[in-house]
Write a structure and sequence with these properties.
- This protein has helices at residues 45-55, 79-86, 104-109, 121-133, 138-142, 150-162, 180-197, 208-214, and strands at 8-17, 25-33, 37-41, 63-68, 71-72, 89-92, 168-172, 200-204, 217-222, 227-230.
- By secondary structure, it is of the alpha/beta class.
- The chain folds into two domains: 1-88 and 166-232, P-loop containing nucleotide triphosphate hydrolases (Rossmann fold, 3-Layer(aba) Sandwich), CATH 3.40.50; 98-165.
- The strands form two sheets. Strands 6-7-8-3-9-10 form a six-stranded mixed beta sheet, with helices on both faces. Strands 2-1-4-5 form a four-stranded antiparallel beta sheet, covered by helices on one side.
- Helix 7 (180-197) packs parallel to helix 8 (208-214).
- It is globular and about 50 Å long.
Length: 238
């Protein structure tokens, strides 16, 4: 018996979006199956933010289509529909806000409650489980967000992105501020979490080491044409 074909999670066709860049963001074709992990190089920080918002339906392209699990983003007609659609996504980005004067534990509580000064035992246990999954120990949780090193901050962003059980993980240059010796351990965590949760992952990153460790497929976007070309380095095989 033939195994059933995996559902398409993300599909982009003939997408063009003008923004405050030197040229529009173009993406000719991208298909990501459910549970696949794809890395895309060739977008700077601003373009990566635009790309994320195109995928999650926050903005629409000037031309072309974006579908997520078959849903056309252009068919979202109201704020309520969009908020429901947005629940499918977890976003990991350096531009995400942490409350600098609060502990990381309090920051991780925010997806669940605004009552972060005195947390119930069951909520604290839930946060500790989430923290363990992304490699944050008790000492890191007790520290202030504003004093956390870049790799710890990014693990906190990953934990918050996972909190509400997304189906698609979108990452924007997650390792850009990390020390090089933190990249591989973080990549291993991202891959393990994605596999365990069967997440579809689309990561915008120019970090070859991160892409090689995390992604099933790695591409470079050719800005002038919108064509994705293979960016899987030969070093992956050694």
């Amino acid at each position: 018996m033939t195994a059933p074909e995996t559902a398409t999670a993300v599909e982009v066709s003939d997408l063009v979006k003008s923004y405050q860049g030197l040229r529009p963001l173009r993406l000719k074709r991208l298909v990501v199956r459910e549970g696949e992990r794809v890395a895309i190089a060739g977008l700077d920080a601003t373009a990566a933010e635009v790309f994320t918002n195109l995928l999650n339906g926050g903005i629409l392209g000037d031309t072309g289509e974006v579908r997520v699990f078959g849903r056309l983003t252009a068919d979202i007609r109201s704020e309520e529909e969009w908020l429901a659609f947005l629940e499918r996504f977890g976003i990991v980005s350096p531009r995400a806000v942490l409350l600098e004067g609060m502990t990381l534990e309090q920051n991780l509580a925010l997806p669940f409650t605004l009552e972060i000064d005195e947390m119930a035992g069951d909520l604290r246990a839930r946060i500790r489980s989430l923290a363990d999954e992304v490699g944050l120990g008790a000492d890191a949780l007790a520290g202030l967000a504003g004093q956390a090193p870049p790799d710890v901050r990014m693990r906190a962003h990953l934990a918050r992105a996972l909190a509400l059980q997304p189906k698609v993980l979108l990452m924007e240059h997650p390792t850009v501020s990390m020390p090089r010796d933190s990249v591989a351990p973080f990549a291993v965590t991202v891959r393990a979490v994605s596999e365990r949760r069967n997440l579809t992952l689309v990561a915008v990153t120019g970090d070859v080491e991160f892409a090689d460790l995390v992604a099933d497929r790695a591409y470079r976007l050719q800005g002038g044409t919108g064509v994705l070309t293979n960016a899987r380095g030969w070093r992956r095989w050694f």
